[in-house]
Amino acid sequence: METRSITAEIPMVPRMSEDPAELVPELAEVSAALFRVTGNGSVPRSTIGLVHLRAGQIVGSTYLTVLHTGFLRKAGESEERITSVASWQDSPYFTGAERAALALVEAVLQPSANGERVSDELYAQAADHYEAKALATLMFAIGQVNFFIPVALIAKPVPGRSFTDPWA
User: Fold this and answer.
1) Which secondary structure element, helix H or strand E, spans residue 81, and what is its range?
2) Which of 6, 93, 130, 143 is the most buried (most CB within 10 A)?
């Protein structure tokens, strides 16, 4: 396993010099479709944003973490809610439905010692908070961020730059 130096400066250039969206322009259609699916109104945008932020934290992507933190701030989320996403389990700032959503994204992205990542119990807890369409939308919101995780980890766009131009 490669060890990272904690004192090394990280260069502020993307690993992949060309924008993957320009190399594969069909991505725009897929991306737009995913945003339409998750934006159907059955799950609050704030919940989807919290789930996407937590996914970025879990996979260790500064780009996704900064991106989704910025989106949440722009949407008016409080600093307390944004900063406590990493420790949501003992934070007083989240509703039961948001906790179920955060538990689902963690279950999907983290290996389970018990084998199955999303247990029947976790599914039932989420289903207690979300009707069928909303639960499906939440599932697709987790899939949406998972679709972009390889871009963040492989191409390594520059954190903090415009969402539409992280390769500039």
Assistant:
1) helix 79-83
2) 130
Which stretches of the chain drop beneath a pLDDT of 70? Answer: 1-8, 10-11, 162-168
pLDDT of residue 166: 61
Residues in the chain: 168
* CA–CA gap between residue 143 and residue 147 (Å, rounded): 6
Tokens of 132: 């069928």
| Residues 69/77, Cβ–Cβ less than 8 Å | no
CA distance 67 to 54: 12
Closest by alpha carbon to 69, among 39, 89, 46? 46
Give me the helices (H) in 6-160, please: 20-23, 27-38, 45-59, 62-74, 79-83, 96-109, 120-129, 132-150
What was the pLDDT predicted at 46?
Answer: 97
Nearest Cα neighbor of 140 from 93, 105, 100 is 105
Read off the tokens for 25: 């322009």
CA dist., res. 118 & res. 101, Å (int) = 12
List, for residues 102-113, the tens digit of each pLDDT value.
Answer: 999 999 999 888
